[in-house]
Structure formats: structure tokens, C-alpha cells
Amino acid sequence: MATTKNESKVFDPRAWGLPPEAIEGLGERLYEHWDRFADCFTTQTRDTSYYALDYLSGMLRMKTDRHFSGIARTSGNSPQNIQHFMTNSPWSSQEVTTQIRQEIIETPIFAKGSALVLDESAEEKASAETVGASRQYNGRLGKVDISQVGVFLSLVNDGLWTWIDGELFLPESWFAPGMENKRARLGVPPDRQFATKIELGWQMIERVQSEGVPFEWVVGDALYGQSVWLRRKLAGAELRYMLDVKGDVRVYVERPEIGLPVRRGAKGKQPTRPRVLSEGKAVEVRSLSADPETNWTRVWVRSTERGELNDEFSARRVWTWTEGETEPTEEWLLMRRSSDGKVQHALSNAHRESTLESLAWGKCQRVFIECSNRDAKSEAGWDESEARKYPAWEHHLALTILATWFITQTKLEWREKYHRDPELHEQLEVDLLPALSIANIRELLRAVMPLPQLTPEYATQLVVEHFVNRTRSRKSRMKSMSRQQLPT
């Protein structure tokens, strides 16, 4: 069957903004990306930046086994050298992420309409001998299990997203008496103190704000939205938030009167703690969304590859108060009802004159943290790392952020430089064309930088190294068991 003119354009790479010269230059582009950060991986005694290039390249090109040994084998390095670079080398992960954020500041598109998205993510671990691992709730598994939890901060804008910071959550049990040796053995900084996930999130927000990262909203799920402490911190810093809350959160529909109760009887103690004095009771937010009198408006937020995001929204002013506060706080309660009837609730300190459209836009930014987490894990190999020590976790995070920033910059610059043929919309009868994905870029990168094929000799050498490592591991375990069996 002959190919029509329209069909030939539909399958023309140039029409999709994929000219051969751009694809052929991907390898050089990755090298230049690493080269800008090479000084970050140089210590006082050694230049180990070439290991960072091999690790970064492995994360982006390999499909599986993106752990220390797997990346070492693919790049032709000794697994011990990669292990040392990631676990023991004293290069600063913060120096890497700080430079990334500086490049973000200098990228014009992020200057307006950006949002910070705060979220946590858990990884299942085989034992508690990994830094931060303990029996805690794992959202991915939906149960309590031995897991390691990181708190991450993403920056999103106009279909672009990338991690920009992260902190390892260390459960309070890791700071119990007698845990000092374990923390030291796994490389936890001696000045590290217990901090909740919410406190870690606030530390990161403060950090990126102080550096000048531009953003207009802070968004997050109910873990963060139900923290009155965090909402008040954000409001005090004049940062606009849109944070999810659960349906059982209580609010006041009329401004409550707060004050000291009248002392009962001449002999009673004078009350010193403020209370709600007015008769109106706090109500659960889900009762407001279920109220037949609530007015719902369908709001178009944006086009998506699956159609349109145009759910029903409703917003009203409410007041929140927590014990110890002398005044109630007025906030927006935003309710979102999707096509399946499910309702989500969020609280915001947006200006009282804000439109429903602007509130709906802020609410719908949180979906991009799922994109950031998915890309970091499935495409950049975040969850394939077998790092046990704290420095290795931080180093792996820095290189993961560096990898996702490479993808984000590539998507942005190709979008600006290589325009798509406008006739594609008409020929395919759609108003939105799919965006270039991290999976697309990785596929192209593998094409121009093919992974090396193992020779029989090198494969044999790897098997021998595996045997040696397993033998040494068993020897170490036997020594440990012998020490435990010595009489006290």
C-alpha cells in the first residue's frame, strides 16, 4: 500500500522535533552536562569525576541492575572503585544539588508559574542494617515493613519536573540510647538529630528559598497538609501553599471567638489557656463536600495526553484553630470532585480574592510529584541502589537529581529549538501532542551510546570476582559469628 503524503509526515522524525543532528549529539550533550559539574566530584587529593560520568551514564542508559556492581561492570570499572567512590569518597552531594538549583534559577521558564512539590517515598529493604531502615509504613506496599524512607522536593512547571532536593528520614528509634555506634558505622553525621518528615520538608523549603529558587506554590499530600505547624510556618514565611488534608479534618465555617474562659466560682483557678468561646462547633471537611447546598463548578485546568483535566471544584473560606493559638486562622478549603465521585480536600492560604481557577490550578500540581518519583525510580534507577551507608545514599541522590536534570534540560531545550510541525495536530485530529519523555530520551541515548557487549574473557573475570566477593562475605560473617559466640 502506498504511503500518503500525510502519513509520511506523521512518521517523519523532523516533524516531531527529532532531527538526526539532535539525536546524534546526545552523547556529547551528556558529556557536557557532566563536565559542568566535574569539579564537584574532585576531592583535595584526587580527581574522581570520571567515576561520576560512568555512574551517570550507566543510570541513564542501563535498563536493569543499576547498582554499584552493575554500573561498574557496564562501564568497565572495578566494582570496588565504584563502591569506594559512592560510599567513602568525601565529595559533597550538597555541592552538586546546589549547582543544579543555581542552573534552575538561571533558566527563564522557571521564573514564573513554578511549584514546589513535597512528598516522601519508601523503599523496601531486606534488613535493618541499612541506614534509616526500620519497620515503618511503606506507602508503595500499603503496609508496615522494613523500609527506608526519603523525603523529596520537586520543582514543576509547564510539563517539566525534576527532583531538586531530598533528605533521608531517620526514625526516632535510630537516636535511642545505644544506637550511636550503629549510626557511626553507617556514616550518619555525628551532628544529625532526629527530625520528622515534616521538619525535613520544611528544612528543604527553607534551603531552596534562601538560594533563590523561584516558585509560587508549595503543594503536598495530607501528611504535610494536616500539620498545622507546617502550614503556619509557610504562612509566616509568606509562602503560598495548597496542601491536601483528610476528610476528617475539622474546620469552622464561621470565625470562632478565642479567649480565656470565665473562672467558675470564687475559689477556682484563673484559666490561662485560650479556648473557643463561641457556640459554633468545628465540622469535618467531608461533611461540607457532602452538603447538598455546596455549589460545584467544572473547571478546565489543562489538557493531558489522556484527555482533559476538568473536574468539579468548590471553594469556601473556613477557619482553623489549634490549642495554644490566641487567634483562629482563615484559610481556603478547596474541594475537588472527580468523575468517579471521589472528593479530595485541601487547605490553602491563598489570597482571599483568589479565583476558583487559580485554586484549582494549585491543587492539580501535586500530580507531578508522582511523575518525578516515577521517573527517578523506573527511569533513573533510584530504587535499584543497594547503598547501605548514609554517604552512599546522599551520593546516589545527587547523581539521580543530576540525571533527571539532564533529562529536564534536554526536553526543554529541544522543545524550544526543534519545533513540531503544526500540521500534525490536524492530521492526527488532536489538540495536544505527547511530550518527549525520559524513556524516549534514554532510548535515543542508548542508540548513540550503545552499551558494551561482554567478551567471554571479561564475563569470566566478572564471575570470578563474584566468587571472590561471596567468599570474602562468608568469611566476614563467620568471623562475626565467632565473636558473638565467645564467652563473656
Percent helix, as a range, is: 40-55%
Residue runs with pLDDT of under 50 for 5 or more positions: none
Q: Beta fraction of the residues?
A: 15-25%
- Chain oligomer state: single chain
Describe this structure in words.
It is a single chain. It contains 18 helices and 16 strands. It has 488 residues and is α+β, with helices and mostly antiparallel strands. The protein has 2 domains: 294 residues, no CATH class; 103 residues, no CATH class. Strands 1, 2, 3, 4, 5, 6, 11, 14, 15 and 16 form a 10-stranded mixed beta sheet that branches. It is globular, with a radius of gyration of 27 Å.
Q: How would you concisely characterize the structure shown here?
A:
The protein has two domains: 5-219 and 370-448, no CATH class; 236-258 and 276-355, no CATH class. With 488 residues, it is α+β, with helices and mostly antiparallel strands.
